Amino acid sequence: MAQTSDNDQSSMAATIITNNNNGNNIESDPDSLSTHSRTSYDLNYNSEEEEEKQRLINQVLTLQKTLDDLSHRVDSVKEENFKLRSENQVLGQYIENLMAASNVFQMTNK
Fold first, then answer.
1. Is the dihedral of CA 35, 38, 40, 46 positive or negative?
2. First to last CA, the chain
């Protein structure tokens, strides 16, 4: 992007002001256009800044919801894991009792 000197910018501002739609000089001070441009830039910047801020807020809210969903999922998996461990323990004891009661698994004396 080419850079222009302050004099060039002032000249361009004066030319733009002089060549408006009515052909009248809307501003006699070239710095007024510069101030207007800065104000316009600030408004655009603020608008873009607000859009970015809103986008980030939405992203944070989405991530918070995702974290909450994952937290609930972890809790439900922990509960399921506890239930399955309990069932496995009961089944293990049942199998041990069946093996103890069966003649097939008894030691033989020869």
1. negative
2. 101
DSSP category for residue 20: S
Neighbours of 33 (CB within 10 A): 18
Measured distance CA(51)–CA(79) in Å, rounded: 42
Please list the ranges in the chain whose pLDDT falls under 50. Answer: 1-4, 17-28, 30
* Digit-coded pLDDT (tens) for 32-61: 555 656 666 666 778 889 999 999 999 999
Q: Could you give the CA distance from residue 12 to residue 18 in angstroms, rounded to a whole number?
A: 10
- Cα separation, 48 vs 91, in Å, equals 63
Radius of gyration of the chain (CA): 39
Closest listed residue to residue 26, CA positions, set 36, 44, 39: 36
Q: What is the distance between the alpha carbons of residues 93 and 64, in angstroms, rounded to a whole number?
A: 44
Q: What is the pTM of this model?
A: 0.47
Gap between the Cα atoms of 24 and 26, Å rounded: 6
